[in-house]
Amino acid sequence: MWAVAALSLDVDPDAGLETLMEGYQRGDSDAAARLIGRVSPMLHRYLMVHLASRRFAGDLLQETWLRIHQARHTYRPGEPVLPWLFAIARHVRVDHYRKQRRVEDREQQVEVLPERPQPIPSDGAPDFQAILEKLPESQREVVFLLKGAGMSLEEVARATSSSVGAVKQKAHRAYERLRELLEGFTRTKYRNAP
Amino acid sequence: MTNPELEHVLEWAAKAPHAVDVEVLERITRQVSGSLRPVRILPSEATIRLVLFLILVLVSIGGATCLGFGIDLWKPASPILWVVAVLGPQTATLTAAAMVPGSRKRFEPHVMLLSCTAAFAALFAVFTRDYRLDHFFSEGIVCLGLGALFAAAAGFLIWLVLRRGCVLDPPAAGISAGTLAGLAGFAFLELHCPIQKAAHLMVWHTAVIALSGLAGFRIGRFAQDLGTKRRAAEFMQ
User: Fold this and answer.
1) Which pLDDT score, from 0 to 100, does residue A8 have?
2) What is the mean pLDDT of chain B?
3) How many structural domains is chain B composed of?
4) Range of A163's domain?
């Protein structure tokens, strides 16, 4: 893969995101390449959860990196990277939504529906994206950041510009809804879980 | 389904691999590498907060020094100025946080604006005993104009600081920056204006903060719309 090929020996392969981000700020291209390789799948998945099209998610991922590149001086070493990155990705997504509305106002509706994301076949695990699609936008975002990105409540609050209490409330409501929806997900299937 | 079971299913589902087009990743890496150079990291939040608060202090004291002090400098400072000294750093913290994506948000900017306006109006109602309404408009307009002028000067200086960061939510940043600038204009009036009538202080002095906050919001919204319009036009081409 491209990111692996671009590696050099001066960047620790197990380096944390914080170390890679600091290297990126110092102008280290290897650290930047590793950071892009590590974070992009997560950001792409986040954008996919909110969009119908894979092509749009790819475009938005590029735009997100452009903004990250422009704002990289605002990351403070020692701070968690994920809330900083997801705050920018979230802004790009919201901005895209606004832009889309503006464009739609001038366009005529077409009959062709946008392509749906194609889930990658996995080991019988439920499709994460399909599960999240059943939730309202704000709850979907919170559950993704908590489970998909593995962020803490405090980090999710920072990424979404809200309070920890609000995040807890959204997560609680999302869990209530998911519990109802996943009742069909039988215990037999659940036993297959690793 | 119990909570731990649900958590387990979600974690299991989230672990499924997610691929990104190699082409897209290569393009991103090329773009980033093409313009990669060391950057000067933004100063700490405490430093930015201090600079923003200093703007408030310098504009208000500088303005009163130029146009004259309306209060006796040798008397203990009024409780209003003490409240400015408490709310000023809070608003500066909020403004400094707006410059950095993913900052901890302590409270909403519009809550800060409403709190400042309501707190000063209430304090004037409590501490002022002169309820005369003579020259209410003629004196008030002059104070509002002067306060707004110094708030605009502070707002310009705050904008110079803000543009060093990355503002993701311009309307919210506009409200906090506007409130801080309004506090500068308000503090200037407190130092300069000799009028001690309750209605005058409650309406015209406090209005400087409210108007400045609203102006900040409008400017932020305008900047946001301009950015969206520009990007939509690029998309349409």
Assistant:
1) 38
2) 91
3) 2
4) 122-194
Q: Which of residues 75-134 of B touch A (CB under 8 A)?
A: 99-105
Q: Can you name the residues that pair with B176 across neighbouring β-strands?
A: none
In the stretch 30-69 of chain B, residues with CB closer than 8 A to chain A read: 31-33, 35-42, 44-45
Q: How far apart are CA A43 and CA A65, in angstroms?
A: 10
Q: What interface predicted TM-score (ipTM) does this complex get? A: 0.86
Closest CA to B103 of B163, B42, B179, B154: B42
Q: Is the pLDDT of residue A1 over 50?
A: no
Percent of chain B past pLDDT 90, that is, above it, reads: 73
Q: Which domain holds residue B13?
A: 3-34
Which residues on neighbouring strands pair with residue B197, listed in sequence order? Answer: B130
Could A36 and B102 be called an inter-chain contact, meaning their C-beta atoms sit closer than 8 Å? no
Q: Smallest CA–CA separation between B60 and chain A, in Å?
A: 29
Residues A144 and A62 in one domain: no
Q: Do B41 and A71 touch (CB under 8 A)?
A: no
A56 and A79 fall within a common domain: yes
Distance CA B41, CA B99 (A): 13
Name the domain count of chain A: 2
Which amino acid is residue B111, in one-letter code?
Answer: V
Collect all residues of chain A within an 8 Å Cβ-Cβ radius of residue B100: 74, 76, 84
Integer Cα distance of B27 and B195 in angstroms: 65
CATH number at residue A12: 1.10.1740.10
CB atoms A178 and B21 under 8 Å: no
**pTM score, two decimals?**
0.86
Q: Closest partner residue to A73 among B13, B36, B40, by Cβ?
A: B40
Q: Residue A10, Cβ neighbours under 10 Å: how many?
A: 9
Same domain for B64 and B7?
no
Examine the domain organization and report whether A128 and A182 are in the same domain.
yes
Encode pLDDT of A45-92 as tens digits.
999 888 766 678 888 999 999 999 999 999 999 899 999 999 999 999
Could you tell me if B112 and B171 lie in one domain? Answer: yes
Quick one: pLDDT band at residue B119, thresholds 50, 70, 90? Answer: very high
